[in-house]
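Hi U.,

Before I forget, here's the chain from the pilot set. I'm dumping it here mostly so it's searchable later in email.
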Amino acid sequence: MSQTELNRLHILEQVLGGMITNLSGLFWLAEDFEGYRRLIFDLVTHYGIPVAVYTDRHTLFFSPKFAKNGLSLEEQLLGQKRPLTQIGRILNELGIRHIPAFSPQAKGRIERCFQTLQQRLVVRLRLAGASTLDEANAVLNEFIKEYNSKFAVQPDNPIPAFRPIPSHLRLDHIFCWKEYRVLNPGYVIPFEGKVYKVVNPKDAPFIPLRSVVEVHKFPDGRLFVGWKGVYISSRVV
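Structure:
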């Protein structure tokens, strides 16, 4: 496992009262949406919904269109106030406050954490002979357990900064790739160079033509159309 591959390690620290209370991590092929989607999903399903997340201003987290208010027509019709990245949208839909870091010094804590990982985790991976993504993540999981038991501290305030997941939330329709489209005659929508037909079951509400609908692409490739809290499957025409 090379230094380049170590840079593909996605890390989340849980911090309360200025003290690190836990560390989560994931090796992934690249610094991309899917890697962070998996990491945040794991965090939420294991601990609950955090009150806030503090990140750098990478374009995965904050849209470069923000300063120009570069909303699409569909987003404007839905009344969206500012452009969101896919990760930013997930945090927003979960009600998580997203705090940007505006200087390298502001990220000092996570940078110190990376120094520790570069010194210790690289050696552990080499000793384990990890050469695949699955092997690296298996080593990482054991390493994090030891890391948390040694370096994590109990916060002064024992009340968790995580909220229970509301029963009405459908996490699979939040932790997906989501875009907006206009429903065209024939009940079809264009998406990623293909045309999809909305398979509207008899008990589903009628969606008026030219309505702005959500397009949900699941990690397994399935595509759903969302409208007013109802999710309907679709198929390629």
